[in-house]
Amino acid sequence: MRKHVGSPAGPDGRLDASGDGVGFNFGVHWKPNDQWRVGLSYKSQVEIGASGTQKFNPAIPGVLPAKTGVSGTVVLPDMIAAGVTYYPMPNLSIEVGAMLTRWSTYNEFALEFDDPVAFSTEKVDEKNWDDVMRYSVGVEYGITDWLDLRAGYVFDESPLDPKYADYIVPGNDRHLFNLGAGFKWNSWTADVSYTYLWMKGRSYADSVADGVVQNSYSKDSYAHIYGLTIGYTF
Predict the structure, then answer these.
(1) Which residues lie closer than 8 Å to 87 by C-beta, 6 or more apart?
(2) Model's pTM, two decimal places?
């Protein structure tokens, strides 16, 4: 994790930390007949304990140390996903899915410093993120034995509580439009994909997060995402 903050009127602050955690996944797949497939999966929460250093430049004696140790804990949310696939023809599949991500586990971002920073050894930022849903629909059509064509759409809700939104995570609800193709040749496979991502803008008028200028906003964002996967079956 790396976080950098600063302004023309004050010192720059840089946080570098890393950590790890352990979780588990569980899934079931049911094929009632040749036309239908049903899947359900669960991914557990993961508690990440991180530690590192916090630096300030320039330092202010007694207020902002040049360097101090820092530690904190973040709980990544558990996720529940379900999907249904229908085959109207052997070479045509239509899939719909939904996933619940329980971001309400992320209610604060707390750091503990080895040395006082701004006269305190602890800093707590309220987050109070919301549980969100992700919805998707996709179609795959096998034109030949060696070529499949794919298309899809995803709507991804933002977990940010507008009252605590900040510039570190400026995201909002997202729309993703996908196109792709899969190629097969003997034991080899190749998959290419293109995704157009549209992320809606966000207003910070009601946010009380540190460093947020009232009535500021982020504009709609767009991204072009390309993918290539090569596979070989032994």
Answers:
(1) 34, 35, 36, 37, 93, 94
(2) 0.82
